[in-house]
Amino acid sequence: MIQTNVNDTGTLIVPGQALVLQCYLEDRLEVHPIWYKGGQPVNLSDPRIAVHNANHSLVIHKTTAQDTGPYMCVMDSAVVGSGINTTIYVNIKPEVKPFGKSLNLVEGEELKLHCAIKMGMPLPSITWLKDSQPLNLSDDRISLLEDNVVPNAKLVIADLQMRDRATYTCVAENLAGNSSTSTLVRVKNKLGALWPFIGICGEVAILCFIIFLYEKKRVNPDYDESDTDQQTDK
Fold first, then answer.
1. Class of residue 175 by CB neighbours under 10 A (exposed 0-12, middle 13-18, buried 19+)
2. Cα separation of 28 and 86, whole Å?
3. CB-CB contact of 1 with 17 (8 Å)
4. 45: confidence class by pLDDT, cuts 50, 70, 90
5. In sequence order, what are the beta bridge partners of 154?
6. Which of 49, 56, 59, 158 is most buried, most CB within 10 Å of its CB?
7. Are 88 and 21 in contact (CB under 8 A)?
8. 182-192 pLDDT, tens per residue?
9. Residue 138 CA, distance from chain mean position
10. What does the alpha-carbon distance between residue 58 and residue 68 come to, in Å, rounded to a whole number?
11. 223 contact partners, CB below 8 Å, separation of at least 6
């Protein structure tokens, strides 16, 4: 359970846990503040939400990512003499969808990685790493694209080269914390798939030659390779 007062600039939601927001009114226990979220009155019909006037608090049970945002505690000017309000920002640590363990591509192909944000408030910033080092964005082949409202959420590397083989990491970070996911990108030689084919063709050729010799001997039992050698000597 998290508790904050009006002096806080923000607090953190842990999804599933309870959140307590409290207005600090010193000894004015008779004052009952009104709670707003994003400029609208808090939905008190939600069974997860309760207001406790005894300590001027708003409690949200079983929080979700949708409970993030600015909450305002407003005191009626007719009661306290002048309008008083304060805003408490409720944030949530970003969470990104995991990449696959590895990705196999061939030289010349295009790499596309999507850093999908599952949650995060405020909007997280995205940083890309290559083998734990900042990605070299001066390479003309590399570009970062926006995903809806999240800048740099998509990494694209055109015309892959062998040197692009590495572990790529997406880091999403905001005021509440950070989250990351990584994948190993393997880059194969574009002729690599040709060598097994050549090997198979060679094996087939040898097999055909052996079958030819076998059939030759079966059809002509008197045929002997040594006879061929003797005729050649003459």
1. middle
2. 16
3. yes
4. very high
5. 114, 145
6. 56
7. yes
8. 999 999 987 66
9. 23
10. 14
11. 216, 217
